[in-house]
Amino acid sequence: MGLTSARIAIDAMGGDHAPTEVVAGALMAQEKFGVDVILVGDPQQIEASLKEHHSNSPLPEIVPAEGTIEMHEEPLGAIKRKPNASINVAMNLVKQKKADAVVSAGHSGAAMASALLRVGRIRGIDRPAIGAVLPTMVRSSPVLILDVGANVDCRPKFLEQFAVMGSIYSQYVLGVDNPTVGLLNIGEESSKGDELAVRTYQMLQENSLISFAGNAEGRDVLTGKFNVIVCDGFVGNVLLKFAEGVGEAVLQLLREELSSGLRSQLGATLLKPSLKRFKQRVDHVEHGGALLLGVAGICIIGHGSSKAPTICNAIRMARDAVNNEVLERINLQYQKHQKQAIEQES
Q: Gene3D superfamilies under this entry (predicted)?
């Protein structure tokens, strides 16, 4: 599949800085990555935002929508009450094969609910998971953590499915050969943790579709030992936000120390290229968002506070998932998994 073929539907009304920053990020991605973007939302507001940003690329297509899902609204109820909200219209474009993926920085629960209701789950997947990519101490070897918010309560088979989907994404999108999978736990031993952890450990160990490397303690998450780490959405969301907070704190401390005196300022000038690369590795803005794995359509969920660079990177993530045929690969692997399970039972 060509790198310029992806058509990405953008929820232009989703996020704290919509539509101005969302439109700016979409234009940036269109020029940088050669994707076709479709801006979904209030045409007047979108057109006003387009006028604010000069672009050499053709103007994106605009698809009208009515309103958005507010952050205080209960996701499922709001999705049903507002069928023409921007996230619903964007998901319908994927369902109708008019777009290959959706990017939204709006209500994450609403994005997941809309994806489930409109495009459905991949066959064999019980629950979708939100996967977030974090940098590790091993250069060019990020770790994919899932779930980071879609499922507060999980069963062992859900975590097993997360592991398979995460392995496929890590291999074909992140470029990791034979990705290692870890189960987030309080110790390395197979007997550690609660009943969920113990039962999941056994299932992961027996699954031939993944390379299970055992339990991952909190201190192991960013070492690069594991390429994929699975956990329930409650723990994963806490872990993700803590990691983002640490990254922001480290960047702030560096800024303060490197501007505290003349010698430090001179050193900062010399270190500028290295500091820029450091920021790219630890700043969540550079990663764009999180992929909703398990639904029958590509959906990238961005931070509510996303600005143009983050939206641009989220669109890049969507393009990569489309071009690397993540959905098709997950489908294929699950057909193999189900066939193996039937053969073992017979």
A: Isopropylmalate Dehydrogenase
